[in-house]
Amino acid sequence: MKNKNICKRVMCAGAAAALMLALAGCGGSAGGASTTGAAYDTAAYEGIAVSNNTVFTESEAPMAEELTTETAAQQAVSSRKLIKTVNMSVETAEYDALVAQLYQTVEALGGYTEYFSTSGADTNRSGSMTARIPKQNLNAFLEMVEGNANITYRQENVEDVTLSYVDLESHKRMLQKEQERLLQLLEQAETIEDIILLESRLTEVQYQLESMESQLRTYDNLIDYSTVYLNIKEVVRYTPQEQVGVWDRIGTGFRANLYAVGDGLVDFAIGLIIHIPNIVVFLIVIGIFALIIRAIIRRRKRAEEKRKQERALLQQVYMQTGAGTQPGMALMQGEDAAPENVLQTGERDKTDEGKP
User: Fold this and answer.
1) Amino acid 249: pLDDT
2) Residue 323 burial by CB count (10 A; 0-12/13-18/19+): exposed, middle or buried?
3) Quick one: pLDDT band at residue 219, thresholds 50, 70, 90?
4) Which of these, 139, 143, 135, 141, lies nearest to 159 by C-alpha position?
5) Mean pLDDT over residues 271-281, rounded?
6) Beta partners for 154?
7) Whole-angstrom Cα distance, residue 339 to residue 278?
8) What's the alpha-carbon Rg for the chain, to the nearest Å?
9) Cβ neighbours of residue 165 under 8 Å, at least 6 residues apart?
10) Are residues 103 and 230 in the same domain?
11) Are residues 152 and 229 in the same domain?
């Protein structure tokens, strides 16, 4: 009986030992599989992608890589230094209202008006505005302009100054380090020559730093605030947009020319009425000159008639005195010589009559 009990105990101990070894083997194999899988994933995707404590499978890892690439691209775009400029020409039938709305919108969007001028009168005014708008609000400003005026011209220009900006920043950092080093050396300098030399170089470095800081501030202002050049024209009728079809273009051009003719006639009538006082004064002056010229012409006609009468009278005298061809000679010699010749001829005739 004792031998049987001993055998049973040995068998139970052996079974327990075999069970423990089996459990240990399972645990070791599970751990080895996990390590191998992790190594495989690392070799394939350079690390397991984890987000919000969630482990992505092999099919989900490329999606995480795409998100990372997109984020990097957005960061690259946001870090670029871009200067945006917009040139626009607009028409409006309500000039004062549009100008007031432009000022209000610029102020509401956090910008400012850099320049404004206006010219003209009545319904033919024109203006020029230069507005600086924060770059994030530029589209809102342009939408407001398009919704309240007729756009006849628009041009947008984007200038990338990233390289210049980065170069300036790099040079600035180098100068700042040099400035710090010069200050340290200046504290340690013992001779006057060294002090003068260091101070001279320090002055040059400070001047270059101020110049670069000024350029960087100018760049920052141009980058942060987009520039909008706006030309405003007051009109009674908007310029039609360009038509695609041939007949549409013909109809639009005909209506535009017809309107221009009517507008020209109206302007002519208005100008004529406005300049009536000038026209009256001009007519009065012309009338006075005409009367003077007419009086001069009448006077000359009377003098000419008088001369003709005198010539006719002289001719009759010559005929009566029988002077022969003397009247013709007197007429050829002129009016002043005629009377004298007549008297001389008359005296000769009387003398000849007294002779035997």
Assistant:
1) 66
2) buried
3) very high
4) 135
5) 88
6) 88
7) 55
8) 56
9) 81, 216, 219
10) yes
11) yes
List the one residue out of 129, 83, 347, 324 whose CA is nearest residue 229. 129
Token output for 288: 């006075």
For the chain, the domain total comes to 4
Q: Is residue 149 within 8 Å of 158, Cβ to Cβ?
A: no
| Cβ–Cβ < 8 Å for 229, 87 | yes
Q: Whole-angstrom Cα distance, residue 290 to residue 293?
A: 5
Question: Pick the residue with more confidence: 229 or 300?
Answer: 229
Which residue type does 214 have? S
Tokens found for residue 23? 């459990």
Q: Give the whole-angstrom CA distance, residue 326 versus residue 315.
A: 10
One-letter identity of residue 111: G
* Residues 341, 296 share a domain: yes
Q: Each residue of 279-326: pLDDT tens digit?
A: 999 899 999 989 999 899 988 888 888 888 888 888 888 787 765 444
Query: What is the rounded distance in angstroms from the CA atom of residue 284 to the CA atom of residue 295?
Result: 17
Domain span at residue 24?
Answer: 2-47
Query: By mean pLDDT, which of 27-31, 116-120, 286-290, 325-329 is the weakest?
Result: 27-31
The Cα–Cα gap between 243 and 252 comes to 8
Give residue-wise pLDDT tens across range 313-348: 888 887 877 654 444 444 444 444 444 444 454 545
For residue 168, the one-letter residue type is L
> Is 61 inside any structural domain?
no
Domain presence at residue 353: no
What is residue 252's predicted lDDT score, i.e. its pLDDT?
63
- Under the banding of pLDDT at 50, 70 and 90, the label for residue 2 is very low
Confidence of residue 96 (pLDDT cuts 50, 70, 90): very high
Q: Give me the residue label for tokens 């990338």.
A: 160
228 close to 115: Cβ distance less than 8 angstroms: no
| 137 CB-near residues (< 8 Å, 6+ apart) | 109, 110, 111
